[in-house]
Amino acid sequence: MTGNIAVGKPFLKWVGGKRQLVPIIKRYMPTQIRHYYEPFMGGAALFFDLAPTSATLSDVNDELVNCYQTVRDAPKQLIDALRTHYYDKDYYYHMRNLDRDRDAFAALSCVERAARLLFLNRTGFNGMYRVNSKGQFNVPFGRYSNPNIVNEEGILAASEALQHVTIQHSPFELMAAQAVPGDFIYFDPPYVPLSDTSYFTSYAQDDFGYADQVRLAETCRQLAEKNISFIASNSYCDAVKELYQPFEFAEIKARRSINASGNGRQPVSEILIWHKAQ
After folding, report:
1. What distance in Å separates the CA atoms of residue 29 and residue 47, rounded to the nearest whole number?
2. How much is the pLDDT for 275?
3. Residue 4 lies in a domain
């Protein structure tokens, strides 16, 4: 199912992105996949590496979904829109604060919204995506020497890779309900926090809390009962291991780049939980 369409790369910087871990994740995947599913798509590093011929990506973040759909359907218009943006602190906060005015934000086209997200992603602090309780983007300005705002080659390659991909605005349960034996689902949700200060991001307007983690683990159990393969990533901690009993799991090391200090960027343990259909 892989290697037969254009191979793109993640066009978004995304906290918790899996580009560095793709070779490890692939060790625990089935060798044959009928259809690939990825909710919590984020940067979709695994999808772009596999280049599946049949795939569905989804997320509850409607701005992220719109951005992917625009990259797929209108890449040249998106590139033209990105050329109007420039790296400047005052301009950054002007663009960031557009979502404070509902009427002004609603007036933006799908292409303009996607260009805004890519601009903020390329020029905001560490490529973070974070919104407050009102759904307003609140990441501070990032300091870069020469940010690549218009990644024309990357957008065009990603667009080609996405041409035959279904991109949905939907919760993970809806995607899981579509899967049948022979399919594969990769879950990369917001992680269980390891400390009171580590749960700093709101992925969408509503936080992904512990009750959601429980729902996700139960969804995985239902998939296993249907003999559907999956892999789930999360924090390596007792709470996660308890949630996913009795599945197989592996501890892996990953670098996180969100911390402002170098000391906070040391390798940390993550967990991979999997079920491979027989």
Report:
1. 13
2. 97
3. no
